[in-house]
Amino acid sequence: MKYWILASRPKTLPAAIMPVIVGSAFAKQMGFFDIIPATICLIFSMLIQIGTNFANDYYDFKKGADTETRIGPQRAVAAGWIQPTAMKNAMIVIFLMAFIVGLALIIYGGWWMLLIGLLSIISGITYTGGPYPLGYNGWGDIFVFVFFGVIAVNCTFFLQAGIFSTPVIISSFAIGALTTNILVVNNYRDVGSDLVAGKKTLAVKFGRKFAYHEYQVLFLIALILPIYLWRLGFSWLILLPVMLWPYSLKLRKQLKSAKNGADYNDLLAKTAFFLIIYGLLLSTGIMAS
After folding, report:
1. Which stretches of 72-207 are DSSP H helices?
2. Arithmetic mean of pLDDT over the chain
3. Which class does domain 2-287 fall in?
4. Is the sign of the CA dihedral 229, 230, 231, 232 positive or negative?
5. How far apart are CA 225 and CA 220, in angstroms?
6. Positive/negative CA dihedral, 201, 204, 209, 210
7. What's the maximum distance between 2 C-alpha atoms anywhere in the chain?
8. Cα–Cα distances in Å, from 168 out to 38, 95, 220?
9. Which residues does 61 contact at the CB level (< 8 Å), separation at least 6?
C-alpha cells in the first residue's frame, strides 16, 4: 500500500484539488454552489491526476525515461516496487473509475460533459503513452495548463451555475499557470535523463534557462491576475494572493541554485504548497466579494 500511495504522487494532488475549490468559490459567491456536482468534480479530477501519474510511471519505464541516472523521486515500476503489468492494470482501473464517476456530471452539464471526460482520460494516457505522447513532444505544459487549469476551474463552475463567467476564466489562467509550474520543476530537474530517453520537454528543447524564465513568467501571471479581478469590482481581499510575491522570488532563487535530488524534491513540494496557499487566498477573496 505504501508503494501505491507513493506511485499516486500525493505532492501533485493539489493540481487536481485547487481548481475545484476555486471554481466552487465562484459558484458560492454568485449563489450557485451545489455540494453534489462539486464533490463529483473533485473525485473525478483526483482520479484523472492519479491515473495520469500511474500512466506516467508505466510508460516512462517502458520508454526508458526512468533510469538510475534520474535524480528525482524513485518511480514505483522503475524501482521494482510494482510490476509493470500491475501498474498498467491499475491505470486502466483508475481511468475506468473516473469515467464512471464522470458520467454523473452529464445530469448537471449535459452530454457534452461526456466529451470533456473522454478527452481528459485520453489526454491522461497519451501524456506519456501512445504513438504521439504529449509529454515527449513538448506539449506537457499545455496539457497541464488546459486540463488542470482552464477546463477544471471553468467546468466546476459551469456544472453548478450553468453559465460561464469572465472572472472565472481569468482565474482559471492563474490556477493553470501555478499547476504548470509543478511540471516545470520536474522538467527542469530531469533535463539530463529526459534528453537521453528522447523526451523532448520544453526544458530539453530550449534549455534550463528557458524553463527558469517560464517558471518566473507563470508566477507573474498568477500574481497579476488578482489585480485585474480587483479592477473588475471584486473586494480588496481578492488581492490577498499578491502577498505571495516574495515567496515566489524565494522559489525562483531555489530553482536556480538547486543541485541535487533533495533540493528539487523540496522545491517541488514548496511549489505545490504555493498553489495551495494561492488557491485558498484567492477563494477567500472571491467569497468575500
Report:
1. 84-103, 106-109, 112-126, 140-145, 152-161, 166-189, 191-197, 202-206
2. 94
3. mainly alpha
4. positive
5. 9
6. negative
7. 54
8. 15, 27, 18
9. 75, 77, 78, 84, 87
Residue 184: name the closest of 247, 99, 254 by CA. Answer: 254
**pLDDT for 202:** 95
- Contact of 87 with 77, CB cutoff 8 Å: yes
Cell 460533459: give the residue: 113
Q: Write the pLDDT tens digit of every residue in 166-200.
A: 999 999 999 999 999 999 999 999 998 888 888 99
Contacts of 92 (CB under 8 A, 6+ apart): none
Q: Is the pTM of this model over 0.85?
A: yes
Find, among 134, 268, 254, the residue nearest to 201 by Cα. Answer: 134
Which amino acid does the sequence have at 179?
A: T
User: If you count them, how many residues does the chain have?
Assistant: 289
Q: Rounded to an integer, what distance in angstroms lies between the CA atom of residue 159 and that of residue 29?
A: 15
